[in-house]
Amino acid sequence: MRNKPKSAMEIMSKLISELLPVIGHTVVIYLFLMIALRVAGRHQIGQLSVIDLVVLILLGSAVETAMVNGDTSLAAGIACSGTLLILNRLFTWLIQRVRPLNRELNGDPITLISDGRFVEENLRRAGLTHEDVLQALRARGLADVSEARFAVMEVNGSITVIPRHAKVHRSSRTTKEAT
Predict the structure, then answer these.
(1) Buried b vs exposed e over 23-45: b needs ≥16 C-beta within 10 Å?
(2) What is the DSSP letter of 42?
(3) pLDDT in tens, 9-59
(4) From CA 178, how far away is CA 176, in angstroms rounded?
(5) Which domain holds residue 37?
């Protein structure tokens, strides 16, 4: 006796029920990694050390099986990828519109040098050494920390340097020459 063919609704229902754990795991891992990487600190891709790069590669490998719930089918891969893309789009949209969330996830700029002196507490907070900041100064043509008015680690991990001799804009209405 032949089995009765399954209807399209039964097939879709079965597929959805099999993929819901993949979607759920992907959401949980995405949220975990967002928080964990925020706690770990900020870097630009160009500033990643070999160790940072190895950790990122291993993270991807470590969470892959859990995200797809052990299901290596094409459907699970598409569901996982689609979920990641939707989550990324959703978080980007939320971060742009909800300032407290933006600040919590991206942080604020951190002053590393103020008036030619290192701000030690902020260096520790940013996980940077004097040498890291001095390298950024040299890249901008400054030989010593005393030549910098400010150095700021931006939310994207880059370091902005303002030399002592640079003009300072005090407000949007007036510009004064720094003394």
Answers:
(1) bebbeebbeeeeeeeeeeebbee
(2) -
(3) 888 888 888 889 989 999 998 888 888 877 776 655 556 667 777 877 888
(4) 6
(5) 8-106
pLDDT tens sequence across 58-80: 888 878 878 877 778 888 888 88
- If asked whether residues 40 and 93 sit together in one domain, one would say yes
Interatomic CA distance for residues 144 and 121, integer angstroms: 20
* Residue 50 resides in a domain: yes
- The answer to whether the CB of 77 falls within 8 A of the CB of 68 is yes
What predicted TM-score, i.e. pTM, was given to this entire model? 0.60
Overall size of the chain counted in residues = 179
Q: Which of 157, 151, 168 is nearest to 116 (CA)?
A: 151
Residue with tokens 């902020």, as numbered in its chain: 122
Place of tokens 């900020």: 42
